[in-house]
Structures are given as structure tokens and as C-alpha cells.
Design a protein that fits this description.
It is built from eleven helices and twelve strands. By secondary structure, it is of the alpha/beta class. It has two domains: 165 residues, Rossmann fold; 121 residues, N-(1-d-carboxylethyl)-l-norvaline Dehydrogenase, domain 2 (Orthogonal Bundle), CATH 1.10.1040. The protein starts with a strand and ends with a helix. α1 links the parallel β1 and β2. α5 crosses α8 and α7 crosses α10. The strands form two sheets. An eight-stranded mixed β-sheet has the order 5-2-1-6-7-8-11-12, with helices on both faces. A four-stranded mixed β-sheet has the order 4-3-10-9, with helices on one face. The chain is globular.
Length: 291
């Protein structure tokens, strides 16, 4: 029997993951989407690949799967929950491929926490239309170590995506958040990632990351003092025309993952009594811009 995998949200991340998993023997991939489309076409660093998975558009069409991979935006937890109620059975494992550091908390009311596997994804890409994706880099996925993490890694054994486990997942998650929080600047000024070459912008981004480091350490993550400089170096190494997801969402008039990427730093900073004025300012400005 093939391993049945349902992927909720065939955007840039979900679609890239789906098209690679669909090439693997022994895996049966189904997509859960709002808008039906004929096939997945993904421009990858290894060339264009296609897949034609089954596509469900209503939770009523679904039944329990072996794995459910959540690749929706972090703010769409309520919509995702409706799918989970149909897709999750007594042995289903759920992997959350979303931004932020609150993967388990988002869905613990719907799925037992011990069956939720948080995942940190670094697969840059953009969706141009339903089923049409440009994957800029093969990328990585990191999950906590343990039996569920090992089983998740095996799902990707035949793909070129580097999937691994970590014994310090909290640090991995907060490190990714440090990169993500700085990206909100692009959404604010509506400029691609190359804006980090402007030293004044880079200074603001470093300040945002320093706040993230302080809060992350209070949450138990092991983050280096020089992480702000690492973040800026990575932004400057990337193509100058790179557009991150929060920038793309604002440009398209869609809701932004502002709380998962920056608001969480402000909220948890308040819990620990740590000032986060720069992230709080960015959140306030982007919220006003979105209105």
C-alpha cells in the first residue's frame, strides 16, 4: 500500500514539496486547495517538473490520510482546521510547514499535540498562478528528532530537498524567525530583498534581529550575538530581485503573516519584559498599510 500524503495549501511551499514527493515511488500525493487546477508545473533548479495529483476543494471530499502536511499561511489556522477534521484519523501524523515558532500551538485544539510535527522550511519560491511555481532553490526542511521526525525524513529520501532532524529544534525555529522578521522591511518599502544593500535599511534590519535574539534566548533558543550580521550577509548573498512571501502578499493585496513573523516577537517580548520597539513599529506600520 502506498503512503498517502495530503498537502493543505499548494502555494510556493506546498506546491514545491508536492511536485517532488509525487515523483517518488510508494507515495500517493493529494492536494487540498480552494481553486482547482489541471496540473502542477514547477520551475526548479533542476529543470521544470510536473505532476498531476488528485485535488480536493472541499473537506467533505476528504478522508483520513497517513500524513497531512500543512503548507497554508500561518494566519489561516481556522480554514486549515476544517480540513484537518476530515483528513486526520487515529494514526495520522501532521507536519506543520509554516513560518513562526508556534507550529504546535496553532493546531493543538484540533490535533493531539503529540501527533503534530513542526517543520522549518527554507525553500525560496513564488507562485505565479494556481499550480504554477518558480522554486528558486532546492532548499531544506528541518524537524525535531524522534520517530516522527525520522519518518518524515524518509518521505523525502528520493527527492533533492535536504530534509533533516535536529535535537535543538527551538534554536532552528528562532534562527529562521530572525531571517523572516527582517524581511518585513521589504513589505513595508515594497522593494525586493536587495534593499538590504542600503546600509540604513540594513541597520534597521539588524535592530529587528537583535530584538528577536533577545526574545528567542528568553524562550530557550541558543542564538549567537552576531546573528544580525549573518542575516544581512544572507540577504545580500541572495538575488537582488528576490521577493519574500510577506512582500508578495502585500503586493497582491492578500493578508500578511505579520503576526507569525514579527508580532510574535512583540507578544513574547511583553511576556518576558523585553522591549521590542522596532518590530512593534514595523507591525503597526504594516497593519496600517494593509487597511
Amino acid at each position: 500500500m502506498p503512503t498517502r500524503i495530503a498537502i493543505i495549501g499548494p502555494g510556493a511551499i506546498g506546491g514545491s514539496v508536492a511536485v517532488w514527493l509525487a515523483q517518488s515511488q510508494g507515495l500517493e500525493v493529494t492536494l487540498c486547495a480552494r481553486t482547482p487546477f489541471e496540473r502542477l508545473v514547477v520551475e526548479t533548479p533542476n529543470g521544470t517538473i510536473e505532476a498531476k495529483p488528485e485535488i480536493l476543494t472541499q473537506p467533505a471530499q476528504a478522508n483520513p490520510f497517513d500524513w497531512v502536511l500543512i503548507a497554508t499561511k500561518a494566519y489561516d489556522a481556522s480554514g486549515t482546521a476544517a480540513w484537518l477534521q476530515a483528513l486526520v484519523g487515529p494514526t495520522t501524523q501532521v507536519a506543520v510547514l509554516q513560518n513562526g515558532v508556534e507550529h504546535v500551538a496553532r493546531f493543538a485544539a484540533v490535533v493531539p499535540a503529540d501527533r503534530i510535527l513542526p517543520a522549518i522550511v527554507d525553500i525560496p519560491g513564488e507562485r505565479s498562478a494556481p499550480g504554477r511555481i518558480r522554486q528558486r532553490r532546492l532548499g531544506t526542511i528541518v524537524v525535531p528528532d524522534g520517530p516522527a521526525g525520522d519518518a518524515f525524513v524518509r518521505l523525502f529520501a528520493a527527492t533533492p530537498i535536504a530534509v533533516a532532524t535536529s535535537d535543538d529544534f527551538r534554536t532552528v525555529a528562532w534562527t529562521k524567525l530572525a531571517f523572516n522578521c527582517a524581511g518585513a522591511i521589504s513589505a513595508l518599502v515594497m522593494k525586493p530583498g536587495g534593499v538590504a544593500w542600503r546600509e540604513g535599511i540594513a541597520d534597521i534590519q539588524r535592530a529587528m534581529v537583535r530584538e528577536c535574539v533577545s526574545v528567542g534566548r528568553a524562550e530557550g533558543a541558543h542564538l549567537p550575538e552576531h546573528l544580525p550580521d549573518i542575516v544581512i550577509d544572507k540577504y545580500r548573498e541572495a538575488p537582488r530581485d528576490s521577493i519574500n512571501s510577506i512582500h508578495a502578499d502585500r503586493a497582491a493585496g492578500r493578508p500578511m503573516e505579520l503576526d507569525a513573523r514579527n508580532g510574535v516577537i512583540v507578544r513574547l517580548g511583553q511576556v518576558h519584559g523585553i522591549p521590542t520597539p522596532i518590530n512593534a513599529t514595523i507591525v503597526a506600520l504594516l497593519e496600517a498599510a494593509a487597511e
